[in-house]
Amino acid sequence: QVPLVESGGGLVQAGGSLRLSCATSVSIFSINAIGWYRQAPGKQRELVAAITWDSSGRTNYADSVKGRFTISRDNTKKTVYLQMNSLKPEDTAVYYCNRVLQVASMTPGTFGSWGQGTQVTVSS
Question: How confident is the model over 14-31, as a mean pLDDT?
Answer without folding.
Answer: 88
